[in-house]
Design brief:
single chain, 4-stranded antiparallel β-sheet, 7% strand
């Protein structure tokens, strides 16, 4: 079921329904617990990257199973939620990072627009047509000004999940992550458009070179580490280098906090 139909059917809050986003994150967390070979998931709105086939069916199962935990007052009924997926093979880590960086930029652009659009409707008394006309041709600074000057809303104070999306990964450090959460805003474009191609990132912490074959013992050990690792759900900057440098195992594919 398309997200627009699902959100309308169960009256999700606009522009963001925290319950719906938390449910998506919980379903993705369930997928990563079930499928230990997955190393990273990034979610924005109704999408999670790296979901296909078995992953999609597992995600859908968890989504339906966990629904009552997030929407106690809304009972699911047919047609039930369903999700699709696609697989894209990126040739190296740099291009993979460019892709997820582009998705986070896109998250910011879309959320700023949606936040302003629905504020004009819910608090400004406009209909959808007038709100669209009001925002036509505006850039990010214009939308920030509308939110602050007319409605006293500082967009910087909006929840990080709404502005940055959600990134899930295996945390090998401890039950409680010892990393310092990045709270600075990512370097997002001021112009209000989706980049034609992913922005270039700086050098990745891991070179793109084939790794040596693993022994059965090593592979089994890493599989155990992945299974025991905590699935971290964070809403942080994944454009800058800090996120990747502090978690080198994500791109290396080697389980454990020392996976470089």
């Amino acid at each position: 079921m398309a997200n627009s139909k699902l959100s309308a059917k169960y009256e999700f809050e606009k522009p963001n329904d925290k319950r719906a986003l938390d449910l998506m994150n919980a379903a993705a967390e369930g997928v990563m617990k079930e499928l230990q070979d997955l190393v990273l998931a990034y979610g924005v709105s109704d999408e999670f990257s790296k979901l296909v086939t078995t992953v999609v069916s597992t995600f859908t199962s968890y989504y339906v199973y966990l629904w009552p935990s997030y929407f106690e007052d809304k009972t699911l009924f047919p047609p039930l939620p369903s999700f699709d997926g696609r697989a894209v093979l990126y040739p190296n880590d740099r291009i993979l990072r460019d892709y997820v960086s582009w998705r986070q930029v896109d998250c910011h652009i879309n959320n700023l627009y949606n936040t302003t659009f629905w504020t004009l409707i819910q608090k400004g008394g406009m209909n959808s047509t007038d709100a669209e006309k009001e925002l036509m041709g505006t850039v990010s600074s214009d939308k920030n000004e509308i939110l602050f000057s007319r409605f006293g809303i500082n967009y910087n104070n909006e929840p990080e999940m709404f502005k940055k999306g959600s990134v899930l990964y295996r945390d090998y450090t401890s039950t409680t992550s010892s990393f310092t959460t990045l709270t600075t805003e990512p370097d997002l474009p001021k112009a209000d458009h989706t980049p034609a191609s992913p922005p270039e990132s700086s050098e990745t912490p891991n070179p793109d070179e084939p790794s040596a074959p693993k022994s059965k013992t090593q592979a089994a050990k890493e599989q155990k580490l992945r299974k025991r690792a905590r699935i971290a759900v964070e809403h942080v900057d994944i454009i800058r280098d800090e996120f990747w440098m502090q978690r080198p195992w994500i791109l290396s594919g080697k389980a454990g906090r020392g996976g470089k």
